[in-house]
Structures are given as structure tokens and as C-alpha cells.
Amino acid sequence: MRPPSSRHPIARLERARTMPRWVRRLDAAAARRINRRAAPDALLTGLSRAADGGLIWAAIAATMVVFAAHRAALRGVGSMLVAGVVSDVVVKRFFDGPRPGWDAVPHARRLRAYPRTTSFPSGHSASAAGFAAGAAWESPAAGAALAPLAAGVAYSRLHVGAHWLSDVVAGVAIGAVVASVGRLVVPARRRSSPPEPEVAQVVERIDLPASADGAGVLIVMNSGAGTSVIHLDPRPVIAERLPKARVRELEAHEAMADIVREIMAGEHPPEILGVYGGDGSVSRMAHLALEFDRPFLALPGGTFNHFARTAGLDSVALALDALEAGTGIAASVGELRVGDRTTTVLNSASIGVYPEFVAERTKRKARLGKWVGGVVAAWRGLRDAEPIEISIGGKRARVWSVFASIGRNTPGQVATFQRRTLSDDVLDVRVQHARGSRLQAVAALSFGAASRAVLRALRLLPPASDIEHITATEITISVRPSPGDAPFYAHDGELQRRPAVGPDGRYAMTCRIRPRALRVYAPAPTR
Predict the structure, then answer these.
(1) Could you read off the pLDDT of 435-473 as tens digits, one per residue?
(2) Is 127 exposed, middle or buried, given 0-12, 13-18 or 19+ CB atoms closer than 10 A?
(3) What is the spatial distance between Cα 406 and Cα 348, in angstroms, rounded to a whole number?
(4) 8 A C-beta contact, residue 332 and residue 320
(5) Per the count of CB atoms within 10 A, which of 74, 202, 296, 437 is most buried?
(6) How far apart are CA 476 and CA 527, in angstroms?
(7) What is the pLDDT of residues 262-283, one digit of tens each?
(8) For the stretch 506-522, what's the b/e string if a residue is b when 16 or more beta carbons lie within 10 angstroms of its beta carbon?
(9) Is the pLDDT of residue 174 over 80?
(10) Is the pTM of the predicted complex or chain greater than 0.90?
(11) How many angstroms separate the CA atoms of 202 and 120, rounded?
């Protein structure tokens, strides 16, 4: 049975009511390109048919049970069934529109019969992604093996002309979300693989001035922080618990340093400097707390809050508890000098692939959002990233990335975005030499234990021989930028423009440790 042609005027009207114009243009362009490309037609057409009714996934699940992977098989089947129901029973009811026209599909690719249901989203893609993602939560190795097959099923629906690109993308997203929600509802079994090495905690507890009502406290609030995640508004909690605190909203056009220096120059300057925001805002206020020799109050309000989490500040309430109790930590920080700029580093500083990624993501954030912009930036990195030439201690090298972490960090990890301890008086420098591929260079930016486990199973992480570890209290890196290099370096997730190069075509970065220089409020340890 042939599907109705998308050239029919009623079909065009239905899809126009369903999808934005830019999506329809992208769908049509993708369909034209796929139909023109040579491909193993029989293989992909057979794969599309094998996925009808989830038959291929049922067969794979049975095989997994035979080989004692029954938990992965059960979670995969459950995710597949739920994703299929969400896609075909729930979502399809809200979208109207035809499938692509069969007349543009090469004859060797056509199915014997096409579905007559609406096109959006792709149930085959939802089931494939649901099964592979569900199995991966129980067994990353099984997920790594199933991912290419699931991708093949999703692509086969485009290849045979049964779906548009937007249908397939939506189906994959539904499957992945269903599997992730399933893991939250029914947690996966702890795997027997060895955990990542622990880092010895070096923490110096100190007493700090307590404030139960906020007297003598200045809190600068970065209203633009953490917009990529959901945060409860902290203002009611701060107003209730610190009624005497001075709270200053930071507008987009204002510089935090100018505001704080103006307040500190006035009458009755505050005794405690605090900030509500992400790692960038926390780093800027920490620099000012050191400049004015004041205790520092960090209220987590960003997307990741790396420094606050290491200090045990998982919420604004915990930070206010520490302020009320007067408990804190003497935290070591880094002092980064690049050209005539000196900044305070709380987590890590880096050059190479990561600043290029952040610059690309920032360029697309306003239009695509932080997460989608990050995906596009990663794709651009896979395509365009180039090594940089550096010199450390008189030795030259071509590298993908250099990360300088404050304090010792997780062994074997390249991207040390979050420090592991607060009072360790050393820099832990990771140099990723440019011996591997761009794919490994981008994969090395992964910092989550779960994502690293999956990438390790897929053999995408760089080998240990490509990563050089240097431990020091001060380090200077001479950088020779090439014409295509991004003109930035990064610290604590923030971009800074690098200085002009000297007569030798280089610029220098020097980072030194400032042992236990920052007095930061933190909760007392619990049993």
C-alpha cells in the first residue's frame, strides 16, 4: 500500500499546520539528500522491516537473557514498550501531517506497504532508542554495542521514505527520555566495575564571623545565572533569614567589581562578601573577597556550581546555615596571570579545545539554548578543532588541551572542571598531547563518571599515554597560537580574551597556588 504523496495540496496544508516552516525546509532538504545518496538499500530496507513491531529488539532481548544479561534485557524491553506507547498512542494524537511522498524514493528502497498513521514522531526510532538507552543504564557495554544498531534503525526510516528527519529526531528523543525517567523510577543495579580512584581530602576547618540576621553582609545576585536549569527563587529565603543583609541585583550591563568597590569605599563597608550565581560569578566575588580581605559566602545559583559543591554547599539554605554557625574552610586558590590581567581561579584554568567549545556554545546560546548550543559546539569541535603548540619547562609539545586544576584531581581525567578538595596546596596540571583524533579530544572533555564509563566502553577516551600529569605550586605555559585558534582561554567556565602575542609570536600564562588564602563559609562535617 502506497502512502499519500506529499505533493497533494491537502497533505501540504496538513503539514503546514503541524510544523514550523524552518522544520519543513530542513526535512525536505534532508529527504532530497538521502534519496540522492548511494547506500546499501537491501540492508537498510531489511533493517527497517525487522524493526516492525519491535521484533528485532525482542530477539536481541532473548539473546541477552541467554547470556545472563537479563536486567539489561528487561529494562531495554520496558523502555521500548513505554516509548512506543508514548510515541504512537500519545504524541501522534496531537500532530497531524503526512509521511514523505513515495514517488521520490528510489524503487529499491521502497517498502511493500507504508503505515497510514500520521508521520510525527517515528515509533520505530522511539522504540530503538528506548531499548538501547534502557539496556545501557544496566550495562554500558551492551548499550555501546546496541547504539549503532539503534542508529541504523532510526536512519532506515529516512532511507525508505517512511519518515521525515524531524520525526526520527523526536522519536529518538522520546526513547532516550523514557529510558532516563525509567532509571529514576527504578534505579539501575550498581555495577561491579571498579569505581574511580578517590582523591584524598585536604580540608582545613576554620571559624568565621557568624551572622544570624545578615548584619554586615553584602550579597550580589547575578540574575542571569543558572537560566539553563530550574532554580527556586532564593530571594524569599534570603529576605527571611537575613533581613539586615544588603542585597544588590547585578544587571546585565554592570560589572561586579565596580559595584563592590563602590560599596566598599562608602560608609560602613560590609564585613562579609557574598554572591548568588554560578562558577563564574563565584570566582569574580572570591577575587574581590581576597582583594578586601573579607570572608566569602557562596550561594549556589548556576548550572553546575562546581566550587560550591566541593565545599558542601548544595543549596542556598546550607550556605546560610554555615553563615549563621560561623563555620568555614581555608580554601587554596589559583592566581592566573595572562598579559596584564590577574584573576583568581577556584576550580581550573584551561587552553585548547575547551575554550573553543565554550566560545562556540556562547555564540549559539541565545538562539539555541545552552544545551542544544553545546551539542552544536561539540559537533564543530569534531570537525574543526586543531592542536596548539605550547612550551612547558623548556619542552615543546603539540596538544589538544591543558587543564590546571586547583588541588589534586581524579587520576586519568583530562577535563578537571570541578576540584576534589579545597585545602590542597598544589596545582594538578593535565596535558593531553595531540597524538589521537579530534573525536578523542572532544570526548576527553567529559567530566561525569557515568559519561566517562560509556565513552571508555566505546574506546573513545584518549589512552593514558596521551595524558601527561604535572604537579607544581607554580607553572608557566608559553603558547604559540595559530591563525585558526580561538582567541580565548578559560577559567571556571568563563572565557577571557588572550593578550596579543610578543615578537616571538607567543604569549605566556602563569598560574600559581595561593595556599589556603580564601576564607569561605561551609557547613561543618557531619557523622
Answers:
(1) 888 888 888 887 666 666 666 666 778 888 889 999 999
(2) buried
(3) 6
(4) no
(5) 296
(6) 41
(7) 999 988 999 999 999 989 999 9
(8) ebebebebbebbbbbbb
(9) yes
(10) no
(11) 54
DSSP secondary structure string for all residues of 433-472:
ETTS-HHHHHHTT---HHHHHHHHHTT-SPPGGGEEEEEE
Q: Of 96, 94, 57, which Cα lies nearest the Cα of 78?
A: 57
Q: What angle do CA 154, 157, 161 make, to 5 degrees?
A: 155
Cα–Cα distance, 65 to 131 (Å, whole number):
14
Residues 134/75, Cβ–Cβ less than 8 Å: yes
Please give the average per-residue pLDDT across 188-192, as a whole number: 56
The DSSP string of 44-76 is HHHHHHHTGGGHHHHHHHHHHHHTT-HHHHHHH
How do 494-497 and 296-300 pair as beta strands?
unpaired
Question: What phi, psi does 173 have (nearest 5°)?
Answer: -65, -40
Cell 540522492, residue located: 36
**Residue type at 64 in one-letter notation:** M
Q: What's the grid cell of residue 290?
A: 581576597
Can you tell me the distance from the alpha carbon of 270 to that of 258, in angstroms, rounded to the nearest whole number?
Answer: 15
Residue with cell 557523622: 527
Say how far apart CA 490 and CA 361 lie, in whole Å: 13
d(CA 30, CA 401): 35
> What stretch of H or E contains 366?
helix 353-368
Q: With bands split at pLDDT 50, 70 and 90, how would you rate the model's confidence at 286?
A: very high
Distance, CA of 247 to CA of 102 (rounded, Å): 63
Average pLDDT, the chain: 82
C-alpha cell at 418: 570541578
Q: pLDDT tens for residues 26-40?
A: 877 777 777 777 666
The values of phi and psi at residue 164, to 5°, are: -85, 165
**How crowded is residue 2: how many other Cβ atoms within 10 Å of its Cβ?**
11
**Helix or strand or coil: residue 520?**
strand
The DSSP H or E segment spanning 337 is strand 327-338
Residues 6+ apart with CB under 8 A from 269: 263, 292
